[in-house]
Amino acid sequence: xTFRALCIDKSQIKIDGEIASEIKSPNSVGCVYQVRQSPxxxxxxxxxxxxxxxxxxxxxxCFSCAHDDMISTYKGYQLSLExxxxxxxxxxxxxxxxxxxxxxxxxxxxxxxxxxxGVKVLKESGSIGKIxxxxxxxxxxxxxxxGWTSIDSVVVSLYPGYKNIALLNELKxxxxxxxYINHARTFNAxxxxxxxxxxxxxxxCSGPMFVKDKLFRYCGPPVFDAAKLMxxxxxxxxxxxxxxxxxxxDDYDEKKIGNMELCNYCWANTNIHSPAYPWGYxxxxxxxxxxxxxxxxxxxxxxxxxxxxAQINNINVALKSLIMKFTPK
Length: 329
Ligand SMILES: C[S@@+](CC[C@H](N)C(=O)[O-])C[C@H]1O[C@@H](n2cnc3c(N)ncnc32)[C@H](O)[C@@H]1O
Ligand code: SF4
Ligand code: SF4
Fold this sequence. Notes:
Number of domains: 3
Oligomer: single chain
Number of strands: 15
Largest sheet: 8 strands, mixed
Bound molecules: S-adenosylmethionine, iron/sulfur cluster
Strand content: 15-25%
């Protein structure tokens, strides 16, 4: 039999809801411990990671935002506490344990009105290991003490022109071990209509992904852009997702990611070699098309080695930043 122990405040270790008197040979995975007596009886399924989408809006309109088509599909969406508890119940009853839950959208997670209660419910469910939140950092003051206790890390995308530095520094002094800064100075251009990305491929933004009442088994948010470019309706693709229900991941095969027809049109298919742009810079479609074509051709036919292309891209970004600086707002 397998026991799972969740160390919530690091002073209490519980096994199957009961405080453990003794744990032999603890196996540490984050703050989770396992005591295995017989492998035959270990029925709990470990899910390495899951993307968890809680809100369909954002204050920013970044050029080339990887989530923007999914945001517009779920415009105004807020994950309700009922939907959250249905997800938790289904996960518990299925005996799944999700090692890392990424709360990274769909848009800006700190716009989720149930953020603090929501992360508490998730953490206390005992079915989640680490909770990582990705944010543009504009609303860091919305995380209260309950929120900070429940989450393990916050990755702040520090876009140029960020105005909340004083608060961020204050929070870093208080919660230094939980805050990571991502200096997001550049964004990769997404695919244009007509571009065919190669398969076989590896997916750079894979599922499983939970949103509202659905579970996308193999894809993250970029699949919404891919479906649009392919000219299909994503909700007609019943092989891609299922309604949230018990045992929702029983036929999920971690090795089966990518390599679908949709990946031909997908930004997350890592065969793409798109040019990088400074965050917020919106080039004309013609410029985008020419640069994407050069980037892909140079990579595909190995005309220019990867390291040289990276330098060319840096020069490209520096030039675009200069243009941005002198362009009247
Ligand atoms: C879509 S955002 C959602 C969370 C939050 N709004 C933010 O900006 O951090 C998730 C992550 O994707 C990154 N991202 C979005 N579009 C991108 C692009 N075109 N190229 C590279 N990274 C991108 C962001 O910088 C961020 O780290
Ligand atoms: S802040 Fe994040 S979600 Fe919002 S537009 Fe920018 S990358 Fe997309
Ligand atoms: S369509 Fe392919 S590349 Fe895109 S998210 Fe899905 S599996 Fe990944």
